[in-house]
Design a protein that fits this description.
The structure is a single chain. The protein is built from 6 helices and 11 strands. It is of the alpha/beta class. It folds into 2 domains: 3-104 and 207-235, Periplasmic binding protein-like II (D-Maltodextrin-Binding Protein, domain 2), CATH 3.40.190; 108-204, D-Maltodextrin-Binding Protein, domain 2 (3-Layer(aba) Sandwich), CATH 3.40.190.290. A 5-stranded mixed beta sheet has the order 2-1-3-11-4, with helices on both faces. Strands 6-10-5-9 form a 4-stranded mixed beta sheet. Helix 2 (46-59) crosses helix 6 (220-235).
């Protein structure tokens, strides 16, 4: 891009930020009867995002909601670029342009179908998983890296029969009794016909966090969504 083009893009970007700030100010004056809320979250946090969004919509049905599900790295870029109002990810954020507000511990747990032999008892030890088929999230995703790190620490190699970048696909295979999986425990969505078991030794947890762009105005809708996320974390004693 030419020097003139770079200069124009810089001014255009600042102008767009000014427009967005003006829209936020107008929205604050009007309250939450109109406006928009753009939320981003990783697939593993769907279980906390969906109830929070539903609560916001029930209270303010006039809002236009946009929910983007993607890997945390992409969500951080979208937040920095001003394409999202608020996101869910992990603390600390990778980008120095973002603020991370920890809201709950993201702990890994074993997920099995009801009636599975491992569904009994309070916890499952690593050695009990040696012969189990696993459905796991795709390599390269943050959750999968945590799962692999735990197995490596246990000196075990999981027998992976399916990999998917979609949590729903993984859970569908587990629900059918064809495999077991390991996912963040307290935030599982679509948990019908599934049993969540504590792993021993416990895998390392991470701090799930609300992500905000530094210096950007926060819309009333984004603040309300954040409050709903915090409330759900407190309900679980986290």
């Amino acid at each position: 891009m030419t020097q003139a083009g770079e200069l124009f893009r810089s001014y255009a970007s600042r102008a767009l930020e000014d427009v967005n700030a003006g829209m936020v100010a107008v929205g604050a004056l009007r309250g939450l009867t109109t406006g928009a809320l753009r939320v981003g979250y990783p697939p593993s946090m769907r279980g906390v995002v969906i109830p929070a969004l539903a609560a916001v919509l029930r209270r303010h049905p006039g809002l236009a909601l946009s929910a983007e599900e993607a890997v945390v790295r992409r969500l951080e870029r979208r937040l920095v670029d001003g394409k999202l109002d608020v996101g869910l990810g992990y603390a600390p954020a990778r980008s120095l342009d973002l603020e991370a507000e920890p809201v709950f511990d993201s702990r890994l747990a074993l997920v099995v179908a009801r009636g599975h032999p491992l569904a009994a008892g309070e916890s499952v030890g690593a050695r009990q998983l040696v012969d189990e088929p696993f459905a796991l999230l795709t390599s390269g995703l943050r959750v999968r890296a945590r799962v692999d790190a735990w197995f490596s620490a246990m000196r075990l190699v999981p027998r992976v029969t399916l990999e998917s970048n979609a949590v729903a696909t993984v859970l569908a295979i587990v629900r059918a009794g064809l495999a077991v999986t390991v996912l963040p425990e307290p935030r599982l969505a679509d948990a019908e016909k599934l049993v969540v078991k504590r792993l021993t030794p416990a895998p390392r947890s991470e701090l799930a966090a609300l992500l905000w762009r530094k210096g950007a105005p926060r819309t009333p809708a984004a603040d309300l969504f954040a409050a709903e996320v915090r409330a759900r974390a407190q309900e679980r004693g986290e």
